[in-house]
Amino acid sequence: MDLDFTAAERDFRAEVRAWLAANVPRNLPSMNTPAGFQAHREWEARLADARLSVVSWPEEYGGRGASLVEWLIFEEEYWAAGAPGRVSQNGIFLLAPTLFAYGTEEQKAGFLPRMARAEDVWAQAWSEPEAGSDLAALTSRAVRTDGGWLLHGHKTWSSRAAHASHGFGLFRTSGEGRHRGLTYFLFPLRDVEVRPIAQLDGEPGFAELRFDGVFVPDSGVLGAPGEGWRIAMATTSSERGLTLRSPGRFLATADRLVELAAGADPALADRAARCWLDAEAYRLQTYAVARRIASGRDLGPAASLGKVFWSELDLRMHTLALELLGERAAATPWFDGFLFALAGPIYAGTNEIQRTIIAERVLGLPR
Ligand SMILES: Cc1cc2nc3c(=O)[nH]c(=O)nc-3n(C[C@H](O)[C@H](O)[C@H](O)COP(=O)(O)OP(=O)(O)OC[C@H]3O[C@@H](n4cnc5c(N)ncnc54)[C@H](O)[C@@H]3O)c2cc1C
Q1: CA of 16 to the centre of ligand 1 (A)
Q2: 132 in contact with ligand 1, CB cutoff 6 A
Q3: Comparing C-alpha atoms, which of 322, 307, 321 is closest to residue 354?
Q4: Nearest-CA neighbor of 86 among 228, 313, 243?
Q5: 302: pLDDT strictly greater than 80
Q6: Do residues 267 and 303 make contact, with C-beta atoms less than 8 angstroms apart?
């Protein structure tokens, strides 16, 4: 495998680095507050003006047709520059790849350019109080009506939904079996009852959603009725494997951790070095995956390996930072980072479930 970057890739990196150095805002308020949410949307609109919001998308939707390797380069520069977390992440990283694969021309033209500029911010509405790991147990349903569907039911843990404008979720449209009776819907949150839920830090990072006959036209169905499970599984592969958590994010954390450990007890400094090596290993592995995908191969269940690796690494890095800082940690961003890292082994499919997928579908162990 060729590990060198091409001249065009190096030029792209230089362009991104220079633009970010001149434009990254400092100290935006949390995206889970109304003011912070708005400030993050404005930042993403500025990224879009520079055609840096969604670099790998086709130009007609606001991107620049960059390769997967260029997108990874962009992400490395983005996180190294200390740029803000993406308020649009669930739309641009989870829904968009699915829209490109299954959306109609009308859906792509109607939703993607607005998503790229954070004019619309999308929330994922999959989990239910009795359906998390076992998602196919979901009971929210959609009933046929003139020209569309009426959504009923209860979703929960929907990130960003407290302030977002749109949702994408699975609803039961027939009793044909756990998986075959599900349909994938795209809808505005305007008519949905949204009840914010506080995270560990007290901010409403997610929300419950109550549907009481919310009308969605036929144009809000992604793919065909009954195809929802197959389409949703395409989204989970993006979420776990590559797009939601690129290596750049963890490398930037590892770089800061190594700085923090300078002059520390050698045993702690060694652990920091180990984290840095693991972040670098994840980076190299991801470039290999990107090249495999570019040559037409699927990521498949191996996506679960990456998910377990990055979530455990993130938690190890933040735990070590807290040990290095002691009482001072509470006044630093490491503390919030630690609280969020605790959730890494849970969201995007818990690590226990990922280990089962790895055992059965990657290693071929008996069930
Ligand atoms: C920060 C955060 C953001 C989230 N954002 C969203 C979002 O935007 N949209 C959304 O729809 N959901 C979201 N979720 C929900 C997330 O997808 C679920 O929490 C997750 O799928 C687990 O489901 P559950 O919470 O119902 O736990 P359960 O499924 O009830 O699991 C409880 C425990 O049992 C274990 N377990 C369950 N089944 C098995 C099994 N078969 N074998 C071994 N162990 C098992 C699990 O690993 C876990 O440890 C988010 C969660 C978090 C923490």
Answers
A1: 36
A2: yes
A3: 307
A4: 243
A5: no
A6: no
- The predicted-structure confidence for 230-260, as pLDDT tens digits, reads as follows 999 877 766 666 777 899 999 999 999 999 9
259 Cα: distance to centroid of ligand 1 (angstroms)? 34
275 is a domain residue: yes
How many domains, the chain?
Answer: 3
Q: From the CB of 360, is ligand 1 less than 6 Å away?
A: no
Cα(125) to ligand 1 centroid in Å equals 13
Q: Domain for residue 188, yes or no?
A: yes
Degrees (nearest 5) of the Cα angle 50, 52, 55? 135
The 8-class DSSP code of residue 131 comes to B
Local confidence band at 294 (pLDDT 50, 70, 90 cut-offs) = confident
Residue 97's pLDDT is 92
- Domain span at residue 291 reads 245-362
Please work out whether the CB of residue 157 comes within 6 Å of at least one atom of ligand 1.
yes
| pLDDT at residue 307 tops 60 | yes
Contact 352 CB / ligand 1 (< 6 Å): yes
Q: Which atom number of ligand 1 is nearest to the Cα of residue 161? A: 8
Same-domain pairing of 307 and 207: no
Nearest residue (CA) to ligand 1, atom 37:
133
Last residue of a domain, one of 199, 231, 263: 231
Model confidence at 301, in pLDDT bands (50, 70, 90)?
confident
| Closest among 311, 310, 331 to 321, alpha carbons compared | 331
What CATH number is given to the structural domain containing 351?
1.20.140.10
Higher pLDDT residue, 296 or 314?
A: 314
Instruction: Tell me which H or E stretch contains 163.
Output: none
Our answer to whether residue 105 is catalytic in this structure is no
Q: Which is the catalytic residue, given 60, 239, 312, 323?
A: 239
Ligand 1 center–CA 262 separation, angstroms = 37
Residues 145 and 189 in one domain: yes
Instruction: Give yes or no for a contact between 318 and 341, defined as CB atoms under 8 angstroms apart.
Output: yes
pLDDT (0 to 100) of residue 177? 84
CB of 122 sitting under 6 A from ligand 1: no
Burial of 106 (0-12, 13-18, 19+ CB in 10 A): exposed
